[in-house]
């Protein structure tokens, strides 16, 4: 592999690039990696996970003067991707997009191999598919979960609430990005159209404590504010197919392709090498993970997340007569009283009940699965002990 000549950074260092790598590697992470370094491993971040392998980007410290010093001979790193093998016996959960891994560099004809998946600080997880109770990690090590909602169609508020629950549960912070604010009636000079303003308010009402940013990839409205929010963070974009996730990602990246055109020219790569990936470094700082439009987003272990999403219902519940009130038909229910008085939309309470039921169902299923798993392990252990015992002749005395 010929390391490309390091491209000098265009202009002053930008947010997210100072001191640490563009993909979010930090001094603390480097310190925790000391033993892996000593073992000849290098840090890398998973840009895309496949069956049996991962595309990774090199994550180590970038020194503009000593190319390749920290990257196991791979050179400067930059946006170059490496295909790494995931050995079948890799301990722990399989690597997902956004994971940091300890990579054993390719040598002597062997491919680069993932030796360890480093501990995650957060993860966006959903139940894999309906009828199954496995979790699926959509993105690891995320700071922001950006829920993308199009302003040109009526929003599916239940879906927003569901994604918010997963977003809170991830350990990151959810954020709502309202796209297509340019739709009919918009004012190019700035003010959102009455329709966009209505959408904004509808969505803000189901997202207590969450920022709602209004954007348009067509006019560029709100993109600077969004880029500012994402700088220095790892954000994952989630939302229905057609919500405008990829267009948004390209708009955030496009600014870079123009601004650093000279740099991209020197590394000899085509303009579109970055946009087909799942994980990209933004020119304005920060890392963006795009996900394909998700049709089914089952809740997974989202009890606390639901508490955040429906914070106002939890607050009302303090005044219910019974401490274990289910807010269905109980006398003295403050939540039902709020619905009757028109302070809480009935849709909102229905959604709360629905998501809570799903959460409880999923929790029961995974408990049953864990129990079965535990029993299976005990059986294995006792079988092994029996064999050991019989082998010593203990069984035939
Ligand atoms: N008018 C307008 N159209 C937009 C905007 N953003 C996206 N679109 C259009 O919306 C459609 C869907 O956009 P995508 O970016 O492909 O949506 P997505 O969320 O990535 O969809 P999946 O890849 O299926 O998950 C495309 O036709 C875009 O051109 C916007 O800000 N304004
Ligand atoms: Zn109640």
Automatic annotation (TrEMBL):
Keywords: Cytoplasm, GTP-binding, Hydrolase, Metal-binding, Nucleotide-binding, Ribosome biogenesis, RNA-binding, rRNA-binding, Zinc. It comes from Frankia nepalensis. Its EC number is 3.6.1.-. The keyword Metal-binding applies. This is Small ribosomal subunit biogenesis GTPase RsgA. One of its GO terms (cellular component) is cytoplasm. Transmembrane segments: none annotated. Residues 121-297 form the CP-type G domain. Belongs to the TRAFAC class YlqF/YawG GTPase family. RsgA subfamily. Coiled coil: none annotated. It is an enzyme of class 3 (hydrolase). It comes from the Bacteria. One of its GO terms (biological process) is ribosomal small subunit biogenesis. NCBIfam families: ribosome small subunit-dependent GTPase A. Gene3D superfamilies: P-loop containing nucleotide triphosphate hydrolases (3.40.50.300), Probable gtpase engc, domain 3 (1.10.40.50). Binds 1 zinc ion per subunit. One of several proteins that assist in the late maturation steps of the functional core of the 30S ribosomal subunit. Helps release RbfA from mature subunits. May play a role in the assembly of ribosomal proteins into the subunit. Circularly permuted GTPase that catalyzes slow GTP hydrolysis, GTPase activity is stimulated by the 30S ribosomal subunit. Monomer. Associates with 30S ribosomal subunit, binds 16S rRNA. It is found in: Cytoplasm. Zn(2+) binds at residues 320, 325, 327, 333. Residues 140-295 form the EngC GTPase domain. The keyword rRNA-binding applies. GTP binds at residues 179-182, 239-247. The gene is rsgA. Its cofactor is Zn(2+). Pfam families: RsgA_GTPase.
């Amino acid at each position: 592999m010929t390391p490309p000549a390091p491209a000098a950074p265009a202009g002053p260092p930008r947010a997210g690039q100072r001191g640490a790598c563009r993909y979010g590697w930090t001094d603390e992470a480097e310190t925790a990696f000391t033993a892996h370094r000593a073992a000849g491993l290098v840090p890398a971040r998973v840009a895309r996970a496949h069956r049996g392998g991962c595309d990774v980007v090199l994550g180590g410290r970038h020194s503009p003067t000593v190319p390749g010093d920290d990257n196991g001979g791979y050179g400067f790193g930059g946006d170059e991707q490496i295909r790494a093998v995931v050995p079948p016996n890799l301990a722990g959960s399989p690597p997902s997009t956004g994971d940091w891994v300890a990579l054993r560099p390719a040598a002597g004809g062997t491919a680069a191999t993932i030796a360890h998946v480093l501990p995650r600080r957060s993860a966006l997880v959903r139940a894999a598919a309906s009828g199954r109770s496995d979790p699926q990690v959509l993105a690891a090590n995320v700071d922001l979960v950006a829920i993308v909602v199009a302003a040109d169609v009526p929003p599916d508020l239940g879906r927003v609430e569901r994604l918010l629950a997963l977003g809170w549960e991830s350990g990151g912070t959810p954020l709502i990005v309202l796209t297509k604010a340019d739709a009919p009636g918009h004012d190019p000079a700035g003010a959102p159209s009455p329709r966009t303003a209505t959408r904004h308010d509808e969505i803000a009402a189901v997202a207590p404590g969450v920022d709602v940013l209004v954007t348009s990839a067509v006019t560029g409205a709100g993109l600077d504010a969004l880029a500012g929010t994402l700088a220095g963070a790892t954000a994952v974009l989630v939302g229905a197919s057609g919500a405008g996730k990829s267009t948004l990602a390209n708009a955030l990246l496009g600014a870079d392709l123009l601004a650093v055109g000279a740099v991209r020219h020197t590394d000899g790569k085509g303009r579109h090498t970055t946009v087909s990936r799942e994980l990209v470094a933004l020119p304005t700082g920060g890392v963006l993970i795009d996900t394909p439009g998700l049709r089914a987003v089952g809740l997974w272990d989202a009890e606390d997340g639901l508490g955040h999403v429906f914070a106002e219902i939890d607050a009302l519940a303090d005044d219910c007569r019974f401490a274990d009130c289910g807010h269905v038909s109980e006398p003295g229910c403050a939540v039902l009283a709020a619905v009757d008085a028109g302070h809480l939309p009935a849709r909102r309470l229905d959604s709360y009940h629905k998501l809570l039921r799903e959460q409880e169902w999923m929790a029961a299923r995974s408990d049953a699965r864990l129990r079965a798993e535990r029993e299976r392990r005990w059986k294995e252990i006792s079988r092994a002990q029996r064999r050991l015992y019989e082998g010593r002749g203990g069984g035939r005395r």
